[in-house]
Amino acid sequence: MPPHTRVNMADVARRAGVSMATASRALSNHPHVAEETRARVLAAAEQLSYVVSPEASRLAGGATDRVAVVVPHISRWFFATLLEGLEAVLRDADLDVLLYHVGDAADRRDFFQRLPARRKVDAVVVLGMPVMHGERERLESMGVHIVAAGGQVEHYPYVSIDDAAAGRQAVDHLLFLGHRRIGMIATVEPTEPGWPANPGRARAYREALAEAGLPAEPGLVVTVPWGGVPGADAMSQLLSLREPPTAVYAHSDEVAFGAMRTLRRAGLRIPEDMSVVGIDDHPMAELADLTTVAQPVRDQGVAAGRMLLALLAGGEPEGGGTVATRLVVRGSTGPPRPGSSRARSSSPRPGRR
Fold it and tell me: Apex CA 270: angle with CA 269 and CA 276, to 5°?
């Protein structure tokens, strides 16, 4: 095709060697199309980067009343809870949800390549995952509304927590208690090696130490894949230091659970020998007596659904942006041992509670 030429249905039909009517039925998932023919038409559409016009779709049959929801994990409580809140709002509005589980890099490539040509939807909601530049272009080529929840995706209307603010609540709490040697267990997504450790939560750690006049020692930071077992391994690394920390800040509660297991197996008391704080307020955090920074997960899904309904009605989204978090103090944090060389050596520093 010559550059800057708009691709239309006739181009797809010509490339696939079928009539325009057949191409249209194949792209709309009509049941009376042979699978071989459908595959040929879809391949032609992908080769030409053809996208079904939302306006033409509505003229042909009105709105689809379908919303595509893209999620990297289904079994994890965070994503399931986000989805529960979102789906409840969309269901009440008589909108159907098409769930796309993109569990690894191959699933992501397949989704972002195929969705524009294969599905007609009124909107796309991205849950708890960053959207890369090429993926963003692919989404935007659909010409539909896009909303994000559970992560800061500032290219679209979104609802999430402020990760840096949540991190400061966690680290400032440890500083307020008198800890001066604080470790951090940062996480990366194991199925997406290109995703960095959470930048906001890591930045909060560095900034809090700097404001307290404390050095950021590289040895006190361990980065591991997300999960409880990696959290346990990270705690083992911190305990192997000549001078271990007196407190540990974990990027998530699940990682903190693993760290607590290692401490108990090593015969150390929590919080007398080591304090541990996480982020999220996992459903098991209260039973584990874990101090954490709670975020309203289901509420974020609900807010994203309401934002989307406002957009579909032609209005402006309300209730988006960042939502507040709160420190929940339980039994896993306390002052360092009296007389410890790593304990507070001056008057208490007011923490940002």
Answer: 145
Residue 89 lies in a domain: no
Pairing of strands 291-294, 275-280: parallel
What's the whole-number mean pLDDT along residues 251-272?
98
Q: What distances in angstroms separate CA 332 from CA 185, 253, 280, 282, 352, one per listed residue? A: 16, 12, 15, 14, 19
Q: Which residues pair with 160 in a beta bridge?
A: 322
Last residue of a domain, one of 295, 310, 340: 295
CA distance linking residue 351 with residue 348, whole number of Å: 9
CA distances from 66 to 96, 172, 335 (A): 5, 44, 53
pLDDT at position 20, please?
Answer: 67
Domain of residue 258 covers 162-295
Maximum mean pLDDT: which of 119-128, 135-144, 271-280: 271-280
Q: Provide the β-strand partners of residue 293.
A: 279, 327
Tell me, what CATH number does 167's domain have? 3.40.50.2300
Concatenated DSSP letters of 235-258 = HHHHHTSSS--SEEEESSHHHHHH
Beta strands in 20-128 (DSSP E): 66-71, 96-101, 123-127
Residue where a domain stops, chosen among 9, 25, 50: 50
Q: Kindly state the greatest CA–CA separation across the chain.
A: 84
Our count of domains for the chain comes to 2
User: Mean pLDDT throughout 117-138?
Assistant: 79
Share of the chain above pLDDT 70, in %: 85
Residues 6+ apart with CB under 8 A from 61: none
For position 15, which CATH number holds? 1.10.260.40
Give the residue-averaged pLDDT of 254-275. 98
Write the pLDDT tens digit of every residue in 75-89.
899 999 999 999 999
Note the pLDDT of residue 24.
74
Domain presence at residue 234: yes
